[in-house]
Amino acid sequence: MTAPRDDDRFDWRAAEADITAGPDAEVVDLDAARAARTPDPDDEGGPVLVDSPAAQKSPRFTLDGVRAGQRRPILPAWVRSRAELRDTMRWAVGHLLHTTAYHATRLPKYGGKVALRSPAGAWRLLSGATRWVFDWEGERLRQATSETRDGELYLKLSRQRDRRVRWRGIVATFSLSLSLAGGLAMMWAPGWAQWAVPALLVTLCGMFGQPADKPLLDTAVVIPRVARLTSDVVVRALAVLGISGITQAIAKQGQRAIAFTAPITRDGPGWRADIDLPPGVTAGDVIERRDRLAAGLTRPLGCVWPEGQPEVHPGRLLLWVGDQDMAATPPKPWPLLKASGGFDLRRPVPFGTDPRGRVISFELPYTNVLIGSIPGYGKTAATQVPLLAAALDPYAELWCFDFKGTGGLDPLEKVSARYASGQDDDTAEEGLMALRELRKECQRRAAVIKGLPKAVCPDNKVTPELARRKKLGLHWLVVALDEVQELFSHPEFGKEAGELAEKVIKLGRALGVILVVATQRPDAKSLPTGVSANAGTRFCLRVMGQIENDMILGTSAYKNGIRATMFAKKDKGVGYLVGAADDAQIVRTFYVDGPTAEKVIDRARALREAAGTLTGHAIGQATPTPAARRDTLLDDILTVVPATEGKVWAETLTERLADLNTDAYGDLTRDQLTAALKPYGITTGQVWGTDPTTGKGANRRGIERQHIADAVAERNKRRGDKAA
Questions:
Q1: pTM to 2 decimal places
Q2: Which residue from 443, 442, 406, 397 is spatially nearest to 427, judged by alpha carbons?
Q3: pLDDT tens, residue by residue, 549-573
Q4: Dihedral sign for Cα atoms in the order 242, 243, 246, 250
């Protein structure tokens, strides 16, 4: 049988003719088929390409496209920022002074090394000059020609050597004569010259006698050398993260799978890369694998800081790789420690530094601050920073409450109008009373602002000018609640405290009232949603889960790649700051230790004494409390409801309580009474009674006296156990 592939035996033309001559044969015109696939713009029923030829063309250069582009800054960020420029110049001057002082103190050492090395240097100079004068460098070549018996070449080299030696001998004789003449002239030279010239010669000889592996000068500053961050390094690191979307994209497209929207540049003490991840991969996917990313970059974990940019799109990643581990970098001192005098709270408060070493500040007025983390990661130290700044403003009033009782806010006691510290019921009770007073203070301030003319208060809020007018009483009021979970989760006071805090945090922002709330247990019970949702400035140090992360930083923060779960054990004092700028910022808070904080507070107290604004607890005044407080509600109910009256209407009870103490219960309503009794497990029910006005009987909401008595007994028993 003849094989079809054997071209010598198979007639291809005959076979083609047989096929085309068959009844089912069809010859396709390729040009016509290609034309049919191109849609006719006038034919609505024709085939339509998913991507038309126009869509497949590269985008044209248009004016709108240029306008939408982002202009790169002409000057670097540290030049455009006055604070950063000042810090950079301060560093440069300090570096120069340190280097100068370092080498100046070692001048005797350097002089001794030069003197010891000068004989070897003189020998090197003399031997080198001798070799040059007598042309010894060409001796080997001349000897080689004599061994090869190339007489003509040897004669040429000898004549060349004679010319060189003759000319070099003249130069050497002239130089030696000048040196001798100069030596003789030194006998009549001034005394300083007689010492300077030999010293210069010894120095010159010492420099020539320096060994190659032993430099004369010591190293004043050791500069770490780190590898340059390149696109290849970044792509390689992303490829080993185990993210399927990145792995598949790199396998198909190679380096083009990772898009760099801007050149990788130096940004402070590190490198910055703006990256577009492959479709379907979010910045959060990379951030949660920060340890693997650092391993892929072969850099310490504290040097690698990936951040998302959700305002661009979820797949935009900003990667900053520092030269040094952030935890190992010496922390910068708090700027207000160096400043003399006070601080105006209208200015931004220096809070910390970012990984690039830049100072990060935020404005304290017109916001409320929420700080959270797991224990032991710098939450109290972070809370202390804005409070110390507020203390340095003599016109700002401070209320400080530490519900854990560890003394983290003790230095502020000297300047606080209200202060309490402890983990007992009394401290929680004082915190609740403070929130009640704060609610009333907000109402008073609102009435004052409402009565001011528009020319003085155009935006219906406290301005820095109004805060300075003592008669109005609209000064900044900063209230710190540290370890607030102990108050909000309290079985007796927690519910009311949460409701009051929510009202204050909503209304106080425009009234000059600022809440600084810190917690180490951010959950729904320990941190009411109304409080966490209305904080304008949030700082989250290390937390362990998504729920805690979003409770502090806001809903969907974790989804958007703002994850405080990525911080490692050594990242103490490092957290995400949200609300101080348009984007979330990684910040390392300034640390002010106990003795330093005491010095700051002593300065703040002196300022307040001079301004006459030191009041309340700071000068020994007891906190004013009503004769019968709301937390004695159960006892007061037993007082106004005799034992012979088993049940009582809620309306009747509020009237009797108001008669008992108007200051404490004058504004108490039936709904408020119901809410106040709920933490004790007491609910209202239908109670039959007689209306004293009409004399008719009716069923209304009320309580049973026995339930109140049981709750009092349980409370007293619990307090007795704690006291024991």
A1: 0.65
A2: 406
A3: 988 888 888 888 888 888 888 888 8
A4: positive
